[in-house]
Amino acid sequence: MKMRQMWVWMLLMALAFVNERCHCCLEEERISLLEIKAWFSHAGAGSHELEGWDKGHFNCCNWDMVVCDNTTNRVIKLYLSFVNSEFLNAVEDLDLNASLFLPFKELENLDLSGNQLVGGLKNQGFQVLASGLRNLKELYLNDNKFNDSILTSLSGFSTLKSLYLSNNRFTVTIDLKGRVINHSYLG
């Protein structure tokens, strides 16, 4: 009986050692990152910014523009600004597919600025994103092509501390409670 306990203890120690040596992201999040890459690539963009995101590289915590939590190995920050561009020229207008970001349960910072985003896919816009990303603190949507239609849907982000919306196509200014503040163009 003692020999069996010793083997179990040695196996547990070996697994702990291997697990500690591998600071790997979750498979579900790695797959979602590859889907985000495909979404940008479908528009003809992101070829050089996301080229390090590869099926063969299992540890997405080491990928460019991805930051993981050191304890949970979950993705906490995604810096995807200007991925939909080639030499600072936009490739194609994109509709946000929020379902691509839902697996990132611990995401605190999402930067989608400068990607020619024009709105959200039907039933996959900001309402879905707000309901799924309960830890999001910073959201960068500046330098896109959003219009007034998205403003009221942003009120669902209850955990946001910073929201960046400059340089879009808004004609009114609305606070996150949905009240119109003024009718100025925000550029």
Structural summary, described in words:
23% of the residues lie in helices and 18% in strands. It is α/β, with parallel strands linked by helices and 187 residues long. The chain has one domain (25-182): Leucine-rich repeat, LRR (right-handed beta-alpha superhelix) (Alpha-Beta Horseshoe), CATH 3.80.10.10. The chain has a five-stranded mixed β-sheet with strand order 1-2-6-8-9, with no helix packed on it. The chain is elongated and about 75 Å long. Residues 17-21 and 178-187 have low confidence and may be disordered.
Task: Report the principal-axis shape.
Answer: elongated
CATH class wording: Alpha Beta
- Span from first to last CA? 74 Å
Largest sheet: 5 strands, mixed
Q: Helices and strands, in N-to-C order?
A: HHEEEEEEEHEEEE
Helix content: 10-25%
Give the class from helix and strand content and strand pairing: alpha/beta
Task: Spell out the CATH superfamily.
Answer: Ribonuclease Inhibitor
Query: Would you identify the CATH architecture?
Result: Alpha-Beta Horseshoe
Strand order of the largest sheet: 1-2-6-8-9
Low-confidence stretches: 17-21, 178-187
* CA gyration radius, whole angstroms: 20 Å
Oligomeric category: single chain
As for the number of domains, it is 1
The tally of beta strands, per DSSP, is 11
